[in-house]
Amino acid sequence: MAAVSGFAIVASLPAVALAQDTQPVTGGTLNVGFISDVRTLDPLQSSQWTERQILFLIFDTLLETEADFSLKPALAKSWEFSDDGKRVVLKLQEGVKFHDGTPFNAEAVKWNLDARLDPKGNSSQLKLLEGVKNVEVLDEFTVAIDMKEPYPPLLALFADRAGLMASPAAAKKYGSDVGSNPVGTGPFVFGEWVRGSRIALTKNDSYWQKGMPYLDGITFHDIPTNVVGIQRMAIGELDFISQLDPLDTRLSKASPDIELVPSKGGVWYSYQWRWDAEPYNKPELRQAIAHGLNRDRINQIIWAGQGKISDSFTPDGLWWTPTDLVHYEYDPEKASKIVADSGLKGTTIKLAAPSGDTLRRFAELAKEDLDAIGLNIELEPVPQSDYYAKAVSGEIRFTPMRWTQRADPDGLIHYLFSSKGTANSTGYKNDQVDKWIDEARVISDQARRKELYEKIQRQISADLPYMPVGFSVEFNAMRNTVKGFAPMPDEIPRFRYVWKTQA
């Protein structure tokens, strides 16, 4: 076998946090405000972004992601690949227990992966893990994973949802209700979930990483809008809010007790439609919308001109960042002509967006642009709690959307653009793209993978299942008593490393 990585955990804090604040203190409860659409706290079924920031506290992953998207040990303290790349052996931390007192070991890892791979389980990660052929327990703290082909994205998946380890005993005890009774090995234990109000977590006093966590608890409070959240933060009810756009930050700047920390790279925003259904299956309509949207104006109004307009869903600086994508210049005259020539003038289109959210502003701005080129846009508000599930299921046919990056390109590209992708909510299907995606995910040669991902991204930009807008500029707002926070490229706050100077 060829050793790929394997080293001990020597520090839990991100390097940025260590550099900024070197004296953690213990105690206190962190109060986080968020626009909640949490549906389940079962990591095997989770698909919402908001759920991940809570799941990453209750559960540990097999590996962890660093701020540069590199991977470090977590519940797996080392790993080793076979020479043919089709088998990886994980050495696990010893002495770790789930919150229910049952042991974390190789059998628990096998149960977690087998449950995700069981088609009857309908796990949200089933298709991401389809390259896994078999999971074998070698001894109490060693597990081997055999793959159908070499599968480079696997370790990155183990640093995300697919690597969150849940208690098999709790799954058996709670059955279909385990999503309301989550049990992991993480630094915080599930306390209560008052739907529509809050989710409370308490410190795991028996946490396996010595000295962690610092906080006594974390409570997530539902807020209707970020503006309300900032107002509650100003009077001390909340300590932290993420995903603020520049307009949202105006109130926070008026308070000397609130600090703004920019996000790392931004979230990708776009408009998506049902590529395979009327009227969006008409290339002329997709091109008219692409030329009719004034992305610079959107940037100026929503991001104060500080966002980055992009033709890609991949930000600059990653090894799979593409070149030579199709560019759809804002040209309302051209868009109007396409609409008129193709007989689409006056076509009524419903544009859905959640209320109380930045996406609603995207919808309002798109309506102004697209009405002006001869379409008839009807805005369709959707409750925040229903929005994402309806969008991913394809029930919503036209909507603004946002996604965060993954540590490996397969994580997002297969997820969104493979015809077998779990979140292929556009119905996009291009047999050649499918072939390239399947080929790229089993190749170890990064240069060859880059070639394939460039082809994939060029073809997607031509086919237009999404119209990219660009990457946001967003901020995390926190009271100045909050320390140890470091933004991550996947935009998920890692509250496990945070402490408060005044409990």
Explained architecture:
With 503 residues, the protein is an alpha+beta fold. It is 29% helix and 23% strand. It is built from 15 helices and 22 strands. It has a seven-stranded mixed sheet with strand order 9-10-11-2-12-20-13, sandwiched between helices. Strands 1-5-6-8-7 form a five-stranded antiparallel sheet, with helices on one face. Strands 15-19-14-18 form a four-stranded antiparallel sheet. β7 and β8 form a beta hairpin. α14 (431-440) runs antiparallel to α15 (446-463).
Across the major sheet, the strand order is 9-10-11-2-12-20-13
Helix segment tally: 15
> Could you tell me the number of beta strands?
22
Which structural class best describes the helix and strand composition?
A: alpha+beta
Global geometry: globular
Helicity range: 25-40%
Hey, roughly how much beta strand do the residues contain? Answer: 15-25%
Q: What's the average pLDDT?
A: 92
Oligomer: single chain
Measured between the Cα atoms of the first and last residue, the distance is: 50 Å
- Uncertain residue ranges: 1-19
Q: Largest beta sheet, briefly?
A: 7 strands, mixed
Give the C-alpha Rg. 23 Å
